[in-house]
Design goal:
alpha/beta; 8-stranded parallel β-sheet; 8 strands; 11% strand; binds phosphoenolpyruvate; binds magnesium ion
């Protein structure tokens, strides 16, 4: 079984009817990056940068961040890496004192891009390190917890300013650094048609999207099965988001845990998804599932999926794949 799976390292992630699906890796360590490379990932679709801030009580300066991002870029040998700006807060604990100590509801608090925009000094330091790493290979910037157009406009303005400054200082910076948003706050998904033109790419964070859409804490075991992507509201919002992106030619991936679960592959393909970002641990299983799917047949069943009224219906739909 393991041996058979291992043979897929060198095989394409191609459906039975010949469509290539892009498999990006989620990574946050040197080992993840090495695994992603060895497994034939298209690139890194989600590089979580929190770990740089969690290890010590001191904030990593520009040089320390540059070292991490440059290692990532060089480790992927020319494949694109997607660096997510700091997403501290809520479930991502913090020892630096950056996040507020006593927020009454941290999941709805000063986190993700909100914190970055409130602390422009920190944000600029991170953007400078990312932009300098782009001198070594293709880099994209991904902004977490976006809920409005203004946030992405503000982030882009800061990135452009930082790139200009670095070039003036004599650093090599890529000509273009695509900027994307995590779609993980329901408001961003619903308002997307109004600001998708401001994005170069999208990545759907189902971990948080499910939490906020269903009002179910992603880490509260007492809620059991209530935390699930198999809810008609989740399916509907995934469908609409993917369709908006495809209609405007913007690359769109799912980077939440959902994308790393082979059981959900037919569902995501039916909804039009052609890019997955997942931890290397399940990349071969997901590749195998993709290679067993007929995309044309799945798309033809998308309407039936969208008509399902509850979890049992969606599970029934999946069983027939
Ligand atoms: C998500 O929310 O789906 C996601 C990928 O990011 P994180 O799990 O880091 O919040
Ligand atoms: Mg998230």
């Amino acid at each position: 079984e393991r041996k058979q799976l291992n043979r897929l390292r060198r095989e394409p992630s191609r459906t039975l009817d010949g469509v290539d699906i892009k498999l990006w890796a989620n990574a946050e360590s040197r080992e993840d990056v090495a695994d992603a490379h060895a497994l034939g990932a298209a690139g890194v679709g989600l590089y979580r940068t929190e770990f740089l801030f969690l290890g010590s009580s001191e904030l990593p300066d520009e040089e320390a961040q540059l070292r991490a991002y440059r290692d990532l870029v060089l480790g992927m040998t020319g494949r694109t890496v997607t660096i997510r700006t700091l997403d501290l807060g809520a479930d991502k604990a913090d020892r630096t004192g950056l996040t507020l100590d006593h927020e009454p509801n941290p999941a709805l608090g000063l986190r993700g891009v909100r914190l970055s925009l409130a602390r422009a000094d920190l944000f600029d330091t991170q953007l400078r390190a990312i932009a300098r790493a782009s001198g070594y290979g293709p880099v994209r910037v991904l902004v977490p917890m976006v809920s409005s157009r203004e946030e992405i406009v503000a982030a882009r303005a800061r990135l452009q300013r930082v790139c200009r400054q670095l070039r003036d200082e004599g650093f090599e910076v890529a000509e273009s650094i695509p900027l994307g948003a995590m779609i993980e706050v329901p408001a961003a998904a619903i308002a997307l048609p109004g600001f998708i033109h401001a994005l170069d790419f999208l990545s759907i964070g189902t971990n948080d999207l499910v939490q906020y859409l269903l009002a179910v804490d992603r880490n509260n075991d007492a809620l059991g099965e209530l935390y699930t992507p198999l809810h008609p509201a989740v399916i509907r919002l995934l469908h609409d988001t993917i369709r908006s992106a495809r209609a405007r030619g913007k690359p769109v991936a799912v980077c939440g845990e959902m994308a790393g679960d082979a059981a959900f592959v037919p569902l995501l393909l039916a909804l039009g998804l052609e890019e997955f970002s997942l931890h290397p641990a399940t990349m071969l299983e997901v590749r195998r599932a993709i290679r067993g799917c007929d995309l044309g047949a799945l798309r033809a069943r998308a309407a039936a999926l969208l008509r399902m009224r509850d979890r049992a219906g969606i599970e029934g739909w999946l069983r027939e794949c």
